[in-house]
Amino acid sequence: MMDIALLDEKLSKVLSEKRYTHSVYVSHTAVDMAKIFGLDIKKAFLAGLVHDCAKYMSYDEMIDTAKRYGYTFDGMTLACPGIMHADVGALLAQYEYGIDDTGILDAIRYHTVAREGMTSLEKIIYIADMAEPMRDFDGVDRLRELSKSDLDKAFFEALRLSLEFNIKKKNIIHPNTLLAYNEVLINTREEKQ
């Protein structure tokens, strides 16, 4: 794996200043959450720092990078180009930054749309991306509070906020987000029975 200092330096050069600052804030938020929920702090930091590493790339660059590494986007992701950076980011993390931990790679890959069966690390990066200190939207304060006490409730709230945002904007909603949301609802109902 690339040395953390070199990785940080590379990210600071390829990302815009605002995107790099966001990535640093996500990494710190993820570390804070990892401490609370007993997860590996180094993995949380690394996944948070690298999660948007492909955000600077154009659509064509992302398509070319995916082809170079033998990756095929699903049709729904192609219909939502704003989320493609997550898949490409996982590829860059693996093949260009030398990150071989599948937990970190999956946290990067699913930080935009989530999925069924999210691991705790994946949930943390999904939440940290929305709850980091630069974010300012209705509901973020509640999300931040939940992220300090209940990972599953915070994850559900983040999914709810994402769905609400995308519905208001009339954006396509990736099926993985709906599957994750429904999974949480089903599990919550089963726990109450």
Write up what this structure looks like.
This protein has one domain: Hypothetical protein af1432 (Orthogonal Bundle), CATH 1.10.3210. Helix content is 68%, strand content 0%. The protein has eleven helices and no strands. The longest helix is centred in the N-terminal third of the chain and has 21 residues, at 17-37. 38% of the residues are buried.
Rg for CA atoms: 16 Å
Reported by name, the CATH topology is: Hypothetical protein af1432
Q: How does the major sheet shape up?
A: none
Q: What's the CATH H-level homologous superfamily?
A: Hypothetical protein af1432
**Number of helical segments with 4 or more residues:** 11
Q: Pick out the low-confidence regions.
A: none
CATH class: Mainly Alpha
Structural class: mainly alpha
> How confident overall, as mean pLDDT?
96
How much of the residues is beta strand, in percent?
Answer: under 5%
Query: Distance N terminus to C terminus?
Result: 46 Å
Total domain modules: 1
Number of strands: 0
The helix fraction, in percent, is 55-70%
Order of helices and strands: HHHHHHHHHHH
Second CATH tier, the architecture = Orthogonal Bundle
Short recap of the structure:
By secondary structure, the chain is mainly α. 68% of the residues lie in helices and 0% in strands. Helix 4 (59-68) crosses helix 6 (84-95), helix 7 (102-109) crosses helix 8 (120-131) and helix 10 (151-168) crosses helix 11.
